[in-house]
Amino acid sequence: MSDYLFLIPSLPLLGALLCGILHARGGKARDLAGPVANLAVLGSFLVAVLAFLEIRGHEAEALVYEGFTWIHTGTLLLPFKLHLDALSGFMALIVTGVGLLIHFYSIGYMAHDEGRAKYFAYLNLFVFAMSLLILGANLPLLFVGWEGVGAMSYLLIGFWYDKEGGWPAVAGQKAFIANRVGDMGFLIGMFLLFTNFGTLDVAAMKEAPALSGGVATLICLLLFLGATGKSAQIPLFVWLPDAMAGPTPVSALIHAATMVTAGVYMVCRMSFLFVQSPTAMAVVAVVGAVTALLAGTIALAQRDLKKVLAYSTVSQLGYMFLACGVGAFSAAIFHVGTHAFFKALLFLGAGSVIHGMHEEQDAFRMGGLRRHMPITWITFLVGGLCLAGFPLTSGFFSKDEILWETVSSGGSAAYALWGLGALTALLTAFYTFRLVSLTFLGKERFDPGEVHPHESPWTMTLPLVILALLGLGGGLMGLPAVFVEDGNWIHHLLSPVLAEGRPFASEGGHGLDHAQEGLFMVYSSIIAVVGILAGLILYRNGPERMAGLAKTFRPVHVLLAGKWFVDEIYQVCILTPLAALSRFAGWFDLGIVDGLVNGLGRLFQGAGFLVRRVQDGHIQSYAMWMAGTTTVVLAWLVMQLW
Amino acid sequence: MLADYVPILILLLVVIGFVVFNLAVSEILGRRRATRGKASTYECGIDPETNARGRFSVKFFLVAVLFILFDIESVFLIPLGVNLKAFAAAGAGTFLLVEMILFMVVLGLGLAYIWRKGGLEWD
Amino acid sequence: MDFRLTTTDLHALLPLVILSAGACLVLLIDLFLREEARSRVLPPLTSLILLGALGAGIEQYISLSPGSFRFPSERLGPLLTPIWRHQVFTAVGAILLCGIALAVHWISTSWLREEDRPAYGEYQCLLLLFPIGTILLIGARNLMLAFVGLEIFSVALYVLTAMRRTRSRAVEAGLKYFLLGAFAAAIFLYGSALIYAGKGTLDLPDLGAISREGLPAPVGLAALGGGILFLALFFKASVAPFHMWTPDVYQGAPTPITALMSTGTKTAAFFLLITAARLFPHEILPLIPILAIVSILVGNAGALRQTDLKRLLAYSGVAHAGYLLVAYCAIALGQGHQDAHTAIRAILYYLAVYGITNLAAFGVLAWLERREESVLTFEGIRGLGRRNPFCAAVLALAALSLAGIPPTAGFWAKYQVFAAALSAGQTTAAVVGILGSVVGLYYYLRILVALYFEPAPEEARIPAAGFAGALTLGLSGAAILLFGIFPSLLVDPLIHIRL
Question: CA nearest C334: which of C323, C342, C324, C345?
């Protein structure tokens, strides 16, 4: 199977090429792009499944495909090498599998868009880049996928670049720039890794002796900066909510299920390095927990359907980093998996709603949709339950595992982190069901004469149903020890490839046992149920009832609705000084650098004039030049020789 | 060493002597009676004293160039011919013959070229 | 004396035999066939002859490369041994020059049609004489034979330059080239005579003796002769200040012939410069970097203000001769075997790439050229990107390659040349070379601007190129990219050049 690994990235690449050609052909040909793109992703999904089946049972090993030598310069040897082990195999399944469902959904969603072939080309390119990111056996190859994902997200966020006064284009730029900031960290980290290890092959670095504490911390923090860019954590999370400007399936694919998990994946991939630096682990955990809470609070006050989901994504990613930070890497990946299911489900459901509501996104102007869109309603409800962590859904198990791992990682810091996580869980359950209530329950708050909500076609609802089933049953991948001894399949799968490390464990390690795990599970359940009930009851009949509350706590509401004004703070503290610096650099470049260059240019122009003067076209003068030079050389020689 | 060059010296003296002798003889024996006809250029010649920038027909040059070309090329045949016997004795007679024939063929090709292109026609 | 010719002798001379017999045949056909029959027969026949010679060169290369099947007795017979170099080096030269002549023949079709002379026997015959002379020059182990070769191709070029004899500019160019060329030939002969007077022989030393620890440097009369012999070669390679003829002649000659001059002559001259490097006296060595720097400055400065593309490429050719001399410094001044080896390979690589690139550039110009001469200016190629995307793309690629911008082959050529010079300690020349190529960017990119960013003039007729011309352009354009992306394709074959 390892010989066929290259098919996973190359099939979507081929698909993208074909879609590009179809786009260029225009007209009817563009309708073919959807099926072509779907087939390509289906192909790589099947290859991923086969490859995954092959490594199951001997998880410690990996399938390796080594193609051509990509770069060989000096001591740097980079082959085009793909590497599929339990971790990358699981991720590949998620990416291609969920990706496939979203591709399928897109056929219906984008059916009437002029640029649908281009859209599918981008989507396929995205899957190509993402699978390269996952399968790349060395960091530069991973980085190619990393950058490719960034570029595709830029293109897809700005896909409708001419709508709404060009806002999507601006959002695309914002995403790209925020990512670039993170990429810079990643790149510098990579350089440092190369200077310290002499190689960038992940497996080789893993075998190498551990780094000294300070260097490891520095590298880990730089890599983590890259991860915060891609996975939307503090301080670089600002792009993700704006990324909702793209078509909704894009939000589902990129900004919920796959791209944003790249940072988590990278941290897990490099877990052997992170465990060498407890400081870095602590930073990761704290950033994750704080991001989760911050995004959760912002989500409370948003009206836009997709915005709420976007902030919930940021929040859930915070959980994943929290898990990484406390050393529970497999729990993080578990949450990546379940989150991919239910968040894709929620976004696609939201897409279905928006589609049915004629591009309306404001949840305050919806309501009562359960009567009009039954399938969407049921599946969205399932997704909401998962996100809220309703007991026995997949989201419950993965989130609970993270919270349990956090609290059991030992020390008082762990309790504090758990507190943040639990509070976030409460908020999550609340705002999720606030959204569910506002959208589907109560009375219609739109003009039925103008808007006729309708259920979406089967191509859109089928992925919803599949994702709903996955969301409900996904928890079986990682049943906690309380339920079934050794039932945590994903932990068994991943533990051979992930590192072990407990940054807070110095104060006694696992002080808690199974019985307490059960207890904490009950806490989680209660938190989820309380949040859900609060959301349902308070927003049962629309937003009016809570308007009073918002008025009472006006400063808080303004702060939350204004997203803590992070964008504005960045504007004032970073962008404005940066713009001033840019103007100065521009002046320096135009005035002094260009001045020098232009001066030199003029000097040469003058020299050119001189050369032309000498070149007067008279053969006599040419011969004179030749004879003169010959004479001079001869004279010089004669003087030297005698 | 230098004795090898004695025949050349003798040849040189003979050539100079021939010229001097003939000029002297015609100077001494010849009678000078200037007439108009004698002072004029020959019927095929060119006026000896004209504007230096006068134009010649390019055909003169063509004929001169062709003559020099074939004249000099033919000279190369002489050493070949002279040495043929010595070469034959050394067993390289065929080689030299083939070389000569090749040389003549190329020369003949040149002649054919000039001929076909009308280089030998005056008008 | 032994006059037997061995099979190895014939093998060594095969490209020359094919070309010479072919030239005679072409001349005969020109004489005795009717016009329309000639126009059908001559162009393909010329292609066939050149392809045959090219094939023979490649076959020589393969059979001489280490590890391959060797010819029964690799040594030449007694007749050729003292005068001929049956080596990979010669084979590489033969391949390059036959390739150049073939490409020039192919890009000539459109020009010949424009001149109403599709079957121009003399033109094709002289075109065949060019590789004969240059291969003789490259393979010669004796200065006299080299001079014969030099004269064969020079005379062919004089005539080809003035081919359009009804046009004053062409005649002027031919006359200038002839007079100055004769001057250079005289210098060459004078130098040879002095070498003979000093050393009693005209044999060129072996390639293996090129590096510093080889033969002792010439002294006395031989040194004087060696010094001025090089000036003659610098004339052929259009190194400043022996470049004065270049712009006028390039402009006046038919464009395909300009291509031949700029690529073939430079190739031949540098091959001889390499083989004759040991004739260079020590006393004159400091002159080489100076001439290199002067050439780079004069070439780039001269090209800056040109509006005529052929003149521009002529000056750019002067600059490129300078870059080549920078690498040549490493041979002449380098400290050891390794430096010389690297520099020789860098020069050969550069010559190959420069040949391909210039053929592409002049090929496009030859395609565009019309009876009215004014087209080959910046004005004439304005907006070509829209009028003829293929031509424009090839010309743009060529300009990028001449400027040395990756991913074109020109980048690697420049890189190798400067790297060779630096590793031999020729820092000044290399730095000037790099700065010069930055200046060069200006006028090369002006070509791109004219091609793509300026509106096309109305009523611009582009003659049909014909299949062969288009093929040449396509191949050379593709080669520029291919060797730019995979430089090892061209580097590896040069490894076999034995020192």
Answer: C342
Quote helix, strand, coil % in chain A, to nearest 5. Answer: 75, 5, 20
Residue carrying structure tokens 């490409």: C103
Query: Higher-confidence residue: A450 or C309?
Result: C309
Question: pTM surpassing 0.95?
Answer: no
Q: Among candidates A480, A396, A475, which has minimal Cα distance to A432? A: A396
Measure the CA–CA gap between A343 and A316, rounded to whole angstroms: 10
Cα distances (Å, whole numbers) of residue A164 to A20, A480, C84 = 26, 47, 78
Helix and strand numbers (H, E) in chain C are 19, 0
Compute, in degrees rounded to 10, the torsion defined by CA atoms A110, A116, A117, A120. -50
Tell me the C-alpha distance between A201 and A194, whole Å: 9
Token pair, residue B34, equals 């200037």
> Which residue carries 């589609």 as its tokens?
A355
CA distance B121 to C474: 47
Mean pLDDT of chain B: 83
Both tokens assigned to B60: 């003169």
Q: Write down the domain spans for chain B.
A: 56-123
C1 has a chain B CB within 8 A of its CB: yes
A108, A460 Cβ separation under 8 angstroms: yes
At A201, is the secondary structure helix, strand, or coil?
A: strand
| Cα gap A411→A417, rounded to integer Å | 10
- The DSSP symbol for A501 reads -
Q: pLDDT tens digits, residue range C394-431? A: 999 999 999 988 889 999 999 999 998 888 888 888 89
pLDDT tens-digit readout, A102-139 = 999 998 888 888 888 899 999 999 999 999 999 998 99
Q: List C-alpha distances in Å: A151 to A141, A145, A155, B7, C354.
A: 15, 10, 6, 94, 37
Predicted confidence at residue C14, as pLDDT, reads 92
Contact between A260 and A240 (Cβ < 8 Å): yes
Chains C and A touch (3+ CB pairs under 8 A): yes
User: Which chains are within 8 Å of A by 3+ CB pairs?
Assistant: C
Rounded Cα gap, residues C220 and C282, in angstroms: 11
Tally the C-alpha atoms within 13 A of residue A256's C-alpha that lie toward its C-beta. 33
Q: Are A223 and A267 in contact (CB under 8 A)?
A: yes
* Contact call for A630 and C442, based on CB within 8 A: no
Q: Does C34 touch chain B (CB under 8 A)?
A: no
pLDDT band at C72 (very low <50, low <70, confident <90, very high): very low
**Backbone torsions φ then ψ of C358, nearest 5 degrees:** -65, -35
- State the DSSP string of A286-307: HHHHHHHHHHHHHHHT--BHHH
For residues C129 and C31, the answer to whether their CB atoms sit within 8 Å is no
Mean pLDDT of A341-347: 91
DSSP element (H, E) containing C318:
helix C309-333
A608 has a chain C CB within 8 A of its CB: yes
Mean pLDDT to the nearest integer, A75-99: 89
Inter-chain touch A641–C184, beta carbons under 8 Å? no
Is A615 part of the contact surface with chain C (CB cutoff 8 Å)? yes
Check CB contact under 8 Å for C180 and A615: no
Query: Among all chains, which residue has been given the structure tokens 């016997």?
Result: B85
CB A482 within 8 A of CB A521: yes
CB-based contacts of C189: which residues, under 8 Å, 6+ apart? C147
Choose from A603, A633, A642 for mutation: most chain C CBs within 10 A.
Answer: A633
How is residue C247 written in tokens?
A: 């712009």
Interval B46-64: pLDDT, tens: 666 777 777 778 888 888 8
Rounded-to-integer distance, Cα A623 and Cα C309, Å: 25
Q: pLDDT class for C313, splitting at 50, 70, 90?
A: very high
Give the burial class of A184: count Cβ atoms within 10 A of its Cβ; 0-12 exposed, 13-18 middle, 19 or more buried: middle
